[in-house]
Amino acid sequence: MNEDLSEEIKKYDFQIQSIESEIAKLRQKLNKLKTKKSELEKQHNLFKSFDKSAEDLYKGADFPWSSNLISLLREKFKLKEFRQTQLVAINATLSKKDLLLLMPTGGGKSLCYQLPALVGKGTTLVVSPLLSLIEDQQIGLSKLGIVSRSINSGTPKELKKEINDYLSKGTKPVIKLLYVTPEWLSKSKLFKSYLQKCYALGNLERIAIDEVHCCSQWGHDFRPDYQFLSLLKDMFHDVPIIGLTATATLSVLFDVQNMLNMKGCLIFRSSFNRPNLFYKVVSKPQQTEECLNYLEDILKNKFRNKSGIIYALSIKDTEDLAQALRGRGLKVRPYHANLDTGLRRKVHEKWLNDEYQAVVATVAFGMGIDKPDVRFVIHHSIPKSMESLYQESGRAGRDGKPAKCIVLYRFSDYFRGSAIVNSKTEETKLRSVLEYCLDSSTCRRKLLATHFDEKWNSNECEKNCDNCKASSSVVWYNITSVCKYVYAIIEKAEQLEVNLTLLKLLDVWFKGGDKNLRVEDIPMPKVERNQAEVILAYLLIKGYLIDYKSYNAYATNCYIQKAPGRSLGTNTLIEIPISESINFRGLLKRSADIQDDSSSKVIKLD
Ligand code: ADP
Ligand code: MG
Ligand code: ZN
What we know:
Helices cover about 45% and strands about 15% of the residues.
């Protein structure tokens, strides 16, 4: 009897197990389907967002508010006409649509929420990342005779009361534009409760979120407090949101839509292109003195009496560089986060008044820098992402007149940058800047456009970048054998348990440095050292080499290694495109390194 029961129990066990395993399989299948579905939704939403017909829908001048818009534009804002995307965005937000608006720096995003604020009877809440940005906006508005308010921890008591009374009871005066930082919005429960009352009274007309890319970790300026903005759609579900930014790739936009609970909302963008900017990459001299000579020369001659910004990698770099340039009689000052607020403000002001020709700054000199006549932006080290490159360069030429954006590129700076980035995403971003710098033939605008998922015809650049201006053809070089030599050096160093920095690797390759590391049977390269650097950089971006970091108490060091699992078979062919204009060929052709010339082909591209 007992045995029968235990047999029976086993049978049940067996059935239960088999069902559980089926459930597990079904779960897996379910998860796969869910992932697939969410990918498709993502695409679907983006397509919906970019629906061109929506743009047509909102570009008209026959909305109930249309005649009012024009008179406000002319009489209040003292401007002649709308730029095309401005009108589309304004009509859409007045039609109570949620939308994201992408326009380049200086494109005129502020107008797209400032003007609609004056159309309705209620309040536009403007979320802006920095107090200094808010102050700038308020100064601009008050010059136009438009009253706005901002509320934060430093707001005087009486003013706070006035604002709170208006929000909670609808008392006069009506506040058309109310500025807050996301920090204040997330921190102050009281403020949120007043906003809710304002909403209940029907006075919360619209929410504008400036620099909206700060919501996304994929953006280049992620700010944790922007995440709280997801509450807005929950709290005020029928209040239209307009998010504004100058830089966002599709993945950032999608992320922002998700974060703000406005999946599939309209997205309008005007072209990223800034036709008046000349983009250029210059090979950075190896010696500090030579680099200073170069900077001194252009600041004293080409950019004489012209205003600009020099971006440097670290606080120490800005201090050193500014001091050295001042030693050469130039009026420049460093600007970074460690300066006290008063001094920072003073540097900024004196630069605005042209008492300083340039600020030598870290990325802390950023959002809200709004000097119209910046004629040059120089990156003393490569920027950390294409977004930063675009945004920082974009501070030049806001007045629409010609300006130059120069990146000083040296491969070793890539490693300095790599030492301070701390995520895979950031590494990928830095690498895309490396690719941009190495490219000596493609239109810079095309490279930027591709990065920002925009279509671009190279001839639209009007020779306004170094590569279009040179317009030389490209020669492809076979560097397979060179790669073999590099691998041989790395393998020997591995055997000896020595880590190779870029400097060490180059030294050994050029038969210098540590004798023990040299590999007898590889020839002395006949290319110049900086050309050898170009080759190594290509091997890195093509995935034949990798850089890796090691940390000690004092510093982070970056070393070069063979990419794991990558080997050179007999069929491997590694080719790199080099613009004829940089005369790489003369040197490489003479090089013993590229003796097996039979396979090195010269391809001319139009
Ligand atoms: P951003 O897009 O960088 O936020 P802003 O809103 O600060 O740009 O505007 C940049 C400049 O462009 C401002 O000086 C502004 O007055 C000007 N501007 C905006 N719209 C127009 C327009 N329709 N016509 C002429 N100038 C405009
Ligand atoms: Mg702006
Ligand atoms: Zn070009």
